Amino acid sequence: MSATTPPPPTPPVTTLSAAPTPAARPAPRRFEPRSVGAILHREWRVFRRVWFSTAFGSLAEPILYFVAFGYGFGALVAEVAGLDYLDFIATGAIAIGILFSSAFPGLINGYFRRKEQHLYDGILAAPVSVAEIVTGEALWNAFRVTVVATITTGVAFAFGVRPGPGVLLVPVVSIVAGFGFASAGAAFGALLRSTHGFDFVIVGVIVPMYVLAGTFFPLDTLPTALATIGQVNPLTHVVELLRILTFGTGTLVDALGHLTVVLVFDLLAWLVAVKLLRRALVS
Amino acid sequence: MPTTPAVRLAQVVKRFGELTAVDHLDLEVPAGTCFGLLGPNGAGKSTTMRLLTGQTLADEGQVEVLGHPLPAEGKAARARCGVVPQVDDLDDELTVAENLGVYARFHGIARRDRPAAVARGLTIAELEGRSDTPTDALSGGMRRRLLIARGLVHRPELVLLDEPTVGLDPQVRAQLWSTVDAIKHAGATVVLTTHYIEEAERLCDEVAVVHRGRVVARGTPERLIREHVGAEVLELPGRRDDLAAITAEVRAAGFATRSAGTAVAVLGAEGLDQARLATAGAGVGRRRAATLEDVFVVLTGERPDPHHEPADDPHAHEADHTEGVRR
């Protein structure tokens, strides 16, 4: 070292002692709710800084739908599938809000955290597993989606939609559905090798999902093949579940049937996301 | 009573397509030592580090960290390890203190102990006055210190440092050496990879020179120098066009050489008189003590090994080419 180089600071030995605290902590289990909690905590910390953009998007998007479809189409179409058109699109708008607000963060954040920020590499060097990362992030997106769904419901009220008391269950539906869509987004995010892949996922998967789900028009107006695809679309079942809960368009058995489909979708999407992200991160 | 080695790799093989990044690697690192993995880019150092964190899985052989077999007990091993990666993966969406706090949670530090852990991390990083600063507003040196502090926030027994000072200026490097030295003296085992020879010489009790995924030599820096080079080196400067002839003449006289850029380094040159070598094109020789760098070049070759870049391993590829640049 040259004479002009300042001497290094005094080593902070006391702060670095390899105290026996690690041994005192129990060995982590294969799946730790505590680690999922840590992922949620991280998301909350980030959200405190970006809440305004989330709130703005949540408010602006349904207003645009109601203006375009409510005032626009609504003037031409009085009733659809036994519902006022405004009521019909209100549930569609809530479902689309759930889809977009969970699938996009799952897809885009998942990709950037893996490929660009290397955030997952850092987390996986700690005693956290891929399954815990996927679960924590999907849960966070599901919780966040309840805010979006609640705001959308409020906007619908403002535009004159008057749902039944079942509307109080909208946050529950949004958590259940948001978890699956966020996991599916994470699964696609784990597949992408570059940002060019977003085009394929958005145009090839997400847009068809919301078009073929009975959100703004009933599925039975579509050709049979497309309507059949719509029937296996999980968003269709979210929309139907919301309509049953808010406007009584079906029975309890129908509602449970749709809920079962959504829950199965959640499980499959989570399993695929864990598998694909593990493959992408652990070579 | 024999103690469990901090790290044990037995006949470990890791392949990426056609390339064998780690080739039947045997390595044991005793607890409480500072151990250096020294090797050129693409030698398999970063892949070895990722094997130790369970982020790369061995195709053959056994990996044990602090007595935990991997990957079966990977989480238990990682709970007792601190990892400082070569690629800067700090969380830019969080502040300095939040980065430390979140990792304290990941490591299962109890709520009541977290403030002290964060405060300790801030002290290690020398960022006490910047706890609320967004991470993306830090300088390169500050980020690197925070990265090290993050890896130490839970008081690990084993610290894995992958090229800890790559890309940093000399002052920051000296600071970080001081920190690593303190970790060592605090009783933790340190395993570090580097291709900075001086870093290995200053910090490591023992080094292993890795080449093409194998350990080609292992020992204390002093022993490796003595065994592979000798005590002294005589550097004979010459014009570029003359260096090949000088090398040939020195070798004909029975001495080993290596290229030193603008000179030919004659190895094991203690007591050697330059006049004996009859090197017509050489200038006045400069005598110096042999270093680990001489050992490194002797064992790993004078030219980079472009055919041994693990291009099929995205992680190792990035690590070898990013040179610590923030990504």
Mean pLDDT across all residues of chain B, rounded?
86
Shape of chain A: globular
Structural class of chain B: alpha/beta
Approximate strand percentage of chain A? under 5%
**Main beta sheet of chain B, described?**
6 strands, mixed
Helical amount among residues of chain A, as a percent range?
over 70%
Total number of beta strands of chain B:
14
Radius of gyration based on Cα positions of chain A: 23 Å
How many distinct helices of chain B? 11
Global morphology of chain B: elongated
Helix content of chain B: 25-40%
Uncertain runs of chain A: 1-14, 17-23
Number of strand segments of chain A: 2
Derived from helix and strand composition plus strand pairing, the structural class of chain A reads mainly alpha
Largest sheet of chain A: 2 strands, antiparallel
Task: Tell me the strand order in the biggest sheet of chain B.
Answer: 6-7-8-3-9-10
- What Rg of chain B do the Cα atoms give? 22 Å
Beta-strand content bin of chain B: 15-25%
**Mean pLDDT score of chain A:** 87
